[in-house]
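Format is sequence with structure; example below:
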Amino acid sequence: MKEISERKQIMRYLPHTSEDIANMLTAVGVKDLDELFATIPEDCRRSTPLDLPTLTEWELNAHMEKLAAQTVSWNTHTIFAGAGSYHHFIPEAARYVLSRSEFATAYTPYQPEMSQGTLQGIFEYQTLVCRLLGMEIANASLYDGASALAEALLMAIRIGRAKKKTVAVSTLVNPYYRKVLETYFQSTGFKVETLPYLPDGSTDLAAIDAIDDLAGVAIQSPNFFGGIEDLAAAGQVIHDRGAVFITAFSEPLAYGLVKSPGRQDADIVCGEGQSLGLAQSFGGPGLGIFAAKQKYLRNLPGRLVGQTTDTDGRRGFVLTLSTREQHIRREKATSNICSNQSLCAMAAGIYMAALGGSGFRELAALNRDKTEYLKGALRAAGLELPFARPTFNEFVVKFPADFDAQWQKLLAEKKILCGIPLVCYYPELADHYLLCVTETKSREDLDRLVEEVKP
């Protein structure tokens, strides 16, 4: 901390003078910066100065480009990896509209008289989400797909008025979502059960019969293996147990082609919206999409933008039913979600509007068709596709036992990233890889992959 104080005169971007810092330290009752941070354990503090080079703007750009070149990315490699983050083309029209200062610099819309454009944009996003998922209401977004799943299961417990304290989650829900769910639930007193998967790559619901206080069940479709679950049948079983039926997703583009969860009687639908006009950006930011049936409106977490009229009868938009902890409900709030992904939600709304209904379906069909082409070519090459469920744009392939070494060779020499090994998530699936195909892959890319990996 002393090093920061000594170097502040040469650090152009620190706005505080020595007098400013001294006055603030006096105000909080400490004599220096070291005392201010004394509560941080010593072994968590840096004991030596940062060795930062002095670079020009151009030298810094060159240095950052050199560092970036160490990372595999879609513009240097052909990547067949998805697992919750997908490379899709983004229309330039969508990029342009989103970059306008009216959207990119708009702040949280607490003052509707100053934020009608942002509020209307989010309202349109909510409308498009409802149409895509077949649901009746959608909120203004949450942080990401993982937090949306956790909030959905907490909402299921609220719907049951906390009389039922156990939720069940398919093991085919994205493993990272389930990790976040564990963090959410570890101090709540509620219990999370995990449902196994069947040989065909779908969720086994038989275990829920043994759960007496079942509040809700979450199933992902397409699931982590890429398989499309039979949501209608699952919903029937779950509702027969008196539980809330939650459908999760990580690839919303699938619902341009696959029957929506709402049409299969899902109570809550939640997931990741990164595919809808958001770049992968090394893992973030994401977009938590959240929708539900109208009857559960009062239990919805996060923000909701509604349509109204002013005193002159003109249409307007406002935040409504704000039952969050920093508003009227305090400790009785529906969640502690304090913000939403406004700009990311705006991007998704612009993307869906730019494609339109027919464009969205065509793009979804293109993803499905290219995936089926690669699946057929890999089968013909003698490789095994172990799971029989229909898929959208991801699927599992079992490679020969020595494939890992071959994969490293492909990555290094051919600049091909051939999927994601599943063994780190599912120890029983050694030599199994999850592959993803989107509209960004050409037929030449697919044929080249088959040629390189065939036994």
In short: The chain has three domains: 2-52, 78-90+356-453, 92-351. Confidence is low (pLDDT under 50) at residues 1-11. The two ends are 58 Å apart (CA to CA). The first strand starts at residue 78 and ends at 79.
